[in-house]
Fold Hemolysin expression modulating protein.
Amino acid sequence: MLGFLGLIGALGAGVMLDLVMGKPSSSADDDDDPPPPEEEVETPDLLEGLTARDTDAVLGTVGNDKLAGEGADDQISGLQGLDQIMGRDGADSLSGGAGSDYLYGGAGEDLLQGGSGADRLEGEAGHDTLSGGAGHDLLAGHGGQDHLSGGAGQDSLLGGSGADALSGGADDDWVQGGFDHDRLSGGTGTDTLDGDAGNDTLIGHQPGQVDVAQDFLNGGAGDDLLIVGNGDLASGNSGADTFRLGDWLEEGDGARIMDFDPTTDGIEIQYDPTAHPNPVVDLRLDDSTGDMQVRLDGMPLVLVQNGAGLTLEAIRLSAA
C-alpha cells in the first residue's frame, strides 16, 4: 500500500478530488489523553460541495481533526494532533499518526494503526487488524476474528467475540481474549493474560525469547492451554486445562501452578532430546505446605500449589 505522500504523487493533479485534506480544529489542549468517543462522529468539513462519500483518501492536518469515511474502502490519516477517525463501512485503513487518537473501524475488514501517543482503537464488525504502536494504548476488536498488537507501552487489549489473536508487545500489558477460542501472548514485560470464555492458548513463554519477567496467566472458562514461563503464576480456572512446561524453565525462578485439578487437568513437559536423551520426571512433595515440585532429570520446573493429588499419570513428555 502506498503511503499518503506516495499516494499524492501517484494521483497527480487530474484526480485530486479523490484526496481531500481535513479541516483543522481549534488549538490543542496540553492534555495528552485521547479524546472521548462520540456516539456519532460528524462528517468533517472537507471541500465545499464534496462529502466523505465521494472520497477514497482523507488526509488530516497538524491540528485536532475529526475525519470520517462512508461506504468506500477509505484511507484516512490524522497526521498530528488528537484526532477522531471513523471508517464506517468498507475495508478501511486508518492511521492516527502522532498524538493520542481515537480510531473506529466500523463494518468491514479494517486496518487501524495508532502510531505514537496513548491511542484508543476499536475494530467493531469484521476481521480487523489493530496496531497500537508506541504509547499506552487501548485496543478492542469487538466482533470478528481480529489481530491485535499493542506494541511498545503499557497496553490493554480486548478481543471480544470471535477467535482472536492478541499480542501485548513490549512492556507490562493486560490482555483478555473474550469469547471464542483465542490466542494470547504478552510479549516482553510483566503481563496479565486472561483467556475468558472459550478454549484459549495463553503464552507466557515463546521459543527464542529471553524470559525474565513474571506473567499472570488465567485460562478462564473452557479447556485451555497455558504455556508457563519463568516466574509465571498460572491458573487454569474451570475446564480441562493443560499446563505446558519445558526445559526453558530455570531453577529458582519460581514458576507456579495455582489451581491444578488432578481429575481434569494435565501437565505436558516439552524437552530437548539432545539435552535430555533419556528424560526422567519425578515429583517431590513439601509436607509442610502440601505443594508438589515437578522435576525433569532432577531439575525443578514448577511448583504445583496444593498438589498432593498430582501423580505421574497426569504428566506426559513431548520432544520439542
About this structure: The helical segments are 4-11.
